[in-house]
Design a protein that fits this description.
It contains 3 helices and no strands. By secondary structure, it is mainly α. 6% of the residues are buried.
């Protein structure tokens, strides 16, 4: 896929208004894989990090996928380039 991978491919193609379901978006699938990987990796973190670094990493990974899903269903608004978290 080259240096930029999935992101580089997505930049080349315009937004497809026919895509209604966020789960069909390649970028959402990549974000979902990030969530699964993050949970798998943070499982190995020390127990004392459960409410610190582990929690922060998991929430951040989940937020990526959640923001993509949220942005894909917003209708009738001009995109300002920022998605609320």
């Amino acid at each position: 896929m080259g240096r930029w991978g999935l992101i580089g491919r997505l930049i080349q193609f315009p937004y497809d208004p026919m895509v209604k379901c966020y789960e069909r978006l390649e970028v959402w699938e990549a974000a979902h894989q990030l969530v699964l990987l993050t949970y798998r990796v943070t499982k190995t973190f020390p127990r004392e990090e459960l409410y610190g670094l582990t929690s922060q990493a998991r929430r951040a990974a989940f937020a990526v996928a959640a923001n993509i899903a949220e942005g894909s269903v917003k209708k009738g608004r001009e995109s300002s380039g920022a998605i609320s978290t």
